[in-house]
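Section handout 9: paired folding examples.
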Amino acid sequence: MPIKIPIQLPAFQVLSNENIFVMNDERANTQDIRPLKIAILNLMPKKIVAENQLLRYLSNTPLQVEITLIQTKTYISQNTPSEHLDKFYSYFDDIKDQKFDGLIITGAPVEKMEFEEVTYWNELTKIMEWSKTNVFSTIHICWASQAGLYYHYGIPKYDLEEKMFGVFPHWVNDEKADLTRGLDDVFYAPHSRHTEVKREDIEKAPELEILSESEEAGIFIVATKDRRGVFITGHMEYDRNTLKDEYIRDKEKGDNVAIPKNYFKNDDVNETPKYIWRATASLVFGNWLNYCVYQNTPFDLNKL
């Protein structure tokens, strides 16, 4: 949330120069307040787990947030009870006439496939096109970040020689950027993917900025300059045991997968995983809700 101080106070100019959000009395007195409408297109197989992870961070704010959960019609989850989906989820056709302050599109375990081969690709592209006019700001997570960059900007994904799997150090490219404000000089975040996007392709799109990256994990956070689109290649929303569960799942399937890096003490899978990205996730999701959505979305969503 912004700090409200008199414009004449010296700190007002100092903080403004640092790109810290300060608000004078005139702007504060004209602000209308209402709940934020956030939709989540949940593409993860275990939808209840993904819901819990995202809602944990979306609730860590003084802002009131109303959530709408969306599932695809062209592919029905086999890992979530149908009763749960029927009770709590909508289809795109049910909400397409509504407008939302924000949309989150989750990752999905389909990155080895060509985008057009994914069962729900046509439905997803319809939703991403709809988001241009009906959503103020959209976060795309992991595979969805690659799908969004490909659909909106023609940016390809590339296969990795081995899975990017673990918790990696990252840095911020612009410490004054609103979305990454408050992150440490070095911070950690999980990745779990078989493909990547490359800097040279992103730099060809003048609308995009690379806000954060990693020496080992590569590009991490990309956003449009107006923050209407945010693309995060990792999984900040993951909880302590998510990578462990994925590792066990992959081993049981017979996949040749390495132990997640920088995750277990001494790479001992019997040890409790290190949970060193909670603060990062809280900051980034909080910054998105506040700076990218709340402070900029119109009070009357019909004016979007």
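Moving on to protein 2 of 2.
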Amino acid sequence: MPPISELMMFAGLLVVAGAVAGLLAGVFGIGGGAVLVPVFYQVFGVAGVDPAVIMHLAVGTSTAIIVPTSIRSFTAHRKRGAVDTDLLKGWIVAVPLGAVLAAVVASHASSEMLRLIFAVIALVLAARMAFLSNRFHLGSELPGEPARFVVGTVFGLISGLMGIGGGVLNNTFMTLYGRPIHQAVATSAGVGVLISIPGLLGYIWAGWGDEGLPVASTGFVNWIAFALIIPIAMVVTPYGARLAHAMSKRQLETGFSLFLLFVSLRFFYSLYG
């Protein structure tokens, strides 16, 4: 049993992470998983959780937290009329399908390989947002079917395996086809809803009955961590959405590219640091 002071320190870290995750959910239309997963990994390690399930528990719990934060973020953005509801309707099967597939393969996938892929993609996207935001586009209209269905499924799969809300991928996808960054951010909140709900159920199913799980866990979701973070994240998220709409297009793009760079470096460090 770790010292009380150590547990208090990590509890405080969880609270701070909840605030940051909520702010990111509102500003960038993401679920905050890129912040929460590594924090959960550390906390569960200190708590003595079986190393064989720590990463799965971190991703599953992050996915659970994305459910209410993405719903709250989506509601805040939708009130401003910025959401592309047609795209979300077209992905109502594809994105959840990808999230369910992620839960199925999560216990067999190499976390190192997934982190490497994510780090590389995030670095490329950060460079694109920072330096080619107004000069590089794939077209003026989003792809039609079946390409759009495939994209949605892939987004759901990658996001589900990493415990993120899909905003990182969807923001770039939409802006590559000339959509305004504010619309991309708002729509990404809806994508987070489509990913997180089936993802949550999938991670509960995937970890059901695992003997290495800590107390207050249902499958690969720990409700103590959920309870510590979710209240503050829910309070902060609408302020992030308000901030997003107060920023200029370039400011939002710059902030998003810096966020992607941070995420990329963090994953590289976890692999080679």
